[in-house]
Design brief:
Layout lengths: L5 H9 L3 H13 L16 E3 L2 E3 L3 E3 L10 H5 L5 E7 L12 E4 L4 E4 L8 H13 L6 E5 L8 H12 L5 E5 L14 H14 L7 E5 L5 H13 L4 E4 L20 E4 L3 H14 L6 E4 L5 H10 L1 E6 L1 H6 L2 H17 L14
Parallel strand pairs: 3-4, 3-13, 4-7, 7-8, 8-9, 9-10, 10-12, 12-13
Antiparallel strand pairs: 1-2, 5-6, 6-11
Helix pairs in contact: 5-6, 8-9, 9-11
Length: 352
């Protein structure tokens, strides 16, 4: 399927329940029906980070391919990296349906999925098979905890022990609003204990360990997270997860649904937080910017705010896979306009 056919397919997908449409999209990708944009070597977009070379700074955020079912076809769309998960030690069904809502008028989504996934064992088997089949590309693995687990640190440690050898980077996700008590793990003491538990089980050499944070943090929380990140052996932050806030600008009839809001309304707040975390970490912590990206200009704003890499997911629901090529080209146009030869020259220049 060519990427320019998405405008024809979109009305059919959007006539379906969002979760069913997402399932069909994954099945189509697994069947080889995704677009083939071709490979383009654009050295200006390359990012050297954690000893690895990202062909593009643009990645797919966690949540789209929770169970690592379509890693190869997703990478072939033109992403510089793909992040799978969130994965929990034991399989879990997540929250009751309906739990996924399109806010079409707002180019947004509200989800209260609740870490529905098949567990770390089955995902590890698929990722291992992909690796052993000479799978090419960079893969992040996002870890969560089971809803009924009494010991969060043990859950994250178990996931890290199994999946770290398969990951190009590993994410501790303590910022989803859809698992009771999860965001409380962003407090300084809890966070320090959690990171230490994960570090204790990592193999050597260990993949970079990254923390995904919420946009709904107090100034004190932000300062604490920055201090922990710099003191602990973390190699990055993802800024940010979905928000529980509901801007007055929302128009959709679904705007009052509970869960995490993602998409266009998150672009401004998440980029402001990104710049603040860049300042709080003194530009010493690699940041991955996510939230509301819909164009090359949006991605560039996040890079200028301090992001080394950027991610998207929600906007694909509305614009389809052609967006990936458009953003990569848009980034090149922005670099040329501002006289930069490499993307790294633009990182954080608006965050001072």
């Amino acid at each position: 399927m060519r990427s320019d056919l998405f405008p024809l397919v979109r009305p059919l997908l959007h006539a379906l329940d969002p979760e069913r449409a997402h399932r069909l999209t994954l099945q189509a990708l697994k069947a080889g029906l995704g677009p083939k944009p071709g490979q383009r070597d654009e050295s200006r977009l390359q990012v050297r980070l954690w000893g690895k070379t990202f062909a593009s700074p643009l990645g797919l955020a966690a949540g789209f391919d929770k169970d690592a079912e379509a890693v190869e076809p997703l990478l072939s769309l033109g992403f510089g990296f793909v992040e799978v998960g969130s994965l929990t030690p034991r399989p879990q069904t997540g929250n009751p349906r309906p739990r996924l809502f399109r806010l079409s008028e707002d180019q947004a989504v509200i989800n209260r999925m609740g870490f529905n996934n098949g567990g770390i064992e089955s995902a590890a088997e698929r990722i291992r098979h992909w690796r052993e089949s000479d799978g090419q590309g960079l893969l992040g693995i996002n870890l969560g905890k089971n809803k009924d687990s009494p010991d969060a640190a043990a859950d994250y440690a178990r996931g890290a022990a199994l999946l770290a050898p398969l990951a190009d980077y590993l994410v501790i996700n303590v910022s989803s609003p859809n698992t009771p008590g999860l965001r409380a793990l962003q407090g300084r003491g809890e966070l320090e204990r959690l990171i230490a538990a994960v570090q204790d089980v990592l193999p050597q050499p260990a993949p970079p360990l990254v923390l995904k944070i919420a946009p709904d943090l107090t100034p004190e929380d932000r300062a604490d997270i920055a201090a922990v990140a710099l003191a602990a052996p973390l190699q990055g932050l993802i800024v940010s997860n979905t928000t529980i806030a509901r801007p007055d600008s929302l128009k959709s009839r679904h705007r009052s649904e509970t869960g995490g809001l993602s998409g266009r309304p998150l672009m401004g707040p998440s980029t402001e937080l990104l710049a603040e975390m860049h300042r709080l970490t003194e530009g010493r912590m690699p940041l991955i910017g996510t939230g509301g990206i819909a164009s090359g200009e949006d991605a560039y704003h996040k890079i200028r705010a301090g992001a080394c890499l950027v991610q998207l997911y929600t906007t694909l629901v509305y614009q389809g896979p052609a967006l990936i090529k458009s953003i990569n080209q848009g980034l090149i146009d922005c670099l040329e306009r501002d006289g930069f030869n490499q993307l790294s020259q633009a990182v954080g220049i608006d965050a001072a």
